[in-house]
């Protein structure tokens, strides 16, 4: 069995099994063994938890994860990698491979089935996720995986910057606030584009999401709160006053007065408002005027 933590190892499997990296699935394979080991240990410094890996590729990170966990459920969308993975992961007993689209499955149910355990609380996720589905994967993990303890995710540097952005910056937006509602976010490390084959056009970053029990802010109506966030950043050059006037079909003077009464400058733009301020706006305007009608 050829090791897969180097460029020569990756090329061996690609040549042997006729593998051509598919851009639509973000197939850029890590070829730096030190980076693989570092990410694995950042994901799960102990060995008592189950792990989920999204997109194992040729199995480089997977092998590292199996050595530091109770078991790994590796979910791969590309069925064409099955033979290469069968060889690269041979000899490992605590690995379960599932060929499926992560966005189309019930992740926690699949984890229970894979290891025959009802109690999966505290499992962790590790993934190198492609740009075009970064946001859907993050939202799926945070909104539908209540037993997850953390998600250690490698993604394009620019996307990580949007998640970690502060109010007032151009990167600050819907992804920032939605992630912040559900989780604490920590920047872990940079990963150079030179650590991948094929070499991508941009560098990557590794971040960790840790779901907040009870959520960062309490809102009276989550769907209305999310709609306020979504509409605000669709119209981010408008003031919050004009956004709320449009959203609630209300008189400008009335909205102006309400915003002032809760300490929100009506001239503020969405990128200058913190999540707590959006929660205050949502609760106050929904409860005082339209209930659940927006």
Automatic annotation (TrEMBL):
It catalyses: adenosine(1518)/adenosine(1519) in 16S rRNA + 4 S-adenosyl-L-methionine = N(6)-dimethyladenosine(1518)/N(6)-dimethyladenosine(1519) in 16S rRNA + 4 S-adenosyl-L-homocysteine + 4 H(+). Its EC number is 2.1.1.182. PROSITE patterns: RRNA_A_DIMETH (PS01131), SAM_RNA_A_N6_MT (PS51689). Its main location: cytoplasm. It comes from the Bacteria. It is found in: Cytoplasm. Residues 35-213 form the Ribosomal RNA adenine methylase transferase N-terminal domain. It is an enzyme of class 2 (transferase). Keywords: Cytoplasm, Methyltransferase, RNA-binding, rRNA processing, S-adenosyl-L-methionine, Transferase. The keyword rRNA processing applies. S-adenosyl-L-methionine binds at residues 28, 30, 55, 76, 101, 128. One of its GO terms (molecular function) is RNA binding. One of its GO terms (cellular component) is cytosol. SMART domains: rADc. The keyword Chloroplast does not apply. HAMAP family: 16SrRNA_methyltr_A (MF_00607). Belongs to the class I-like SAM-binding methyltransferase superfamily. rRNA adenine N(6)-methyltransferase family. RsmA subfamily. Specifically dimethylates two adjacent adenosines (A1518 and A1519) in the loop of a conserved hairpin near the 3'-end of 16S rRNA in the 30S particle. May play a critical role in biogenesis of 30S subunits. This is Ribosomal RNA small subunit methyltransferase A. It comes from Syntrophomonas wolfei. The gene is rsmA.
């Amino acid at each position: 069995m050829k090791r897969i933590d180097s460029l020569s190892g990756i090329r061996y499997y690609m040549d042997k099994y006729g593998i051509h990296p598919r851009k639509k699935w973000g197939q850029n394979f890590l070829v730096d063994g030190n980076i693989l080991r570092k990410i694995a240990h950042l994901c799960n410094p102990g060995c008592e938890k189950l792990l989920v890996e999204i997109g194992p590729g040729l199995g480089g990170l997977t092998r590292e994860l199996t050595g530091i966990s109770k078991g790994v459920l590796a979910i791969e969308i590309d069925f064409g990698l099955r033979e290469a993975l069968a060889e690269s992961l041979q000899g490992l007993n605590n690995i379960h491979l599932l060929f499926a689209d992560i966005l189309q499955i019930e992740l926690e149910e699949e984890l229970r089935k894979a290891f025959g355990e009802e109690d999966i609380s505290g499992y962790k996720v590790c993934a190198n996720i492609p740009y075009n589905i970064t946001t859907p994967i993050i939202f799926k993990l945070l909104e539908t995986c209540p037993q997850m303890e953390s998600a250690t995710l490698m993604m394009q540097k620019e996307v990580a910057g949007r998640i970690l952005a502060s109010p007032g910056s151009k990167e600050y937006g819907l992804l920032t606030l939605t992630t912040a509602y559900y989780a604490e976010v920590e920047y872990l490390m940079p990963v150079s584009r030179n650590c991948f084959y094929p070499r991508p056009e941009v560098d990557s970053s590794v971040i960790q999401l840790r779901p907040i029990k009870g959520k960062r802010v309490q809102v009276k109506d989550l769907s209305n709160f999310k709609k306020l966030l979504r509409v605000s950043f669709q119209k981010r050059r408008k003031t919050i006053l004009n956004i709320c006037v449009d959203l609630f079909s209300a008189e400008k003077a009335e909205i102006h007065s309400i915003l002032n009464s809760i300490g929100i400058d009506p001239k503020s733009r969405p990128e200058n408002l913190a999540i707590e301020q959006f929660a205050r706006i949502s609760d106050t305007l929904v409860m005082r005027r339209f209930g659940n009608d927006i």
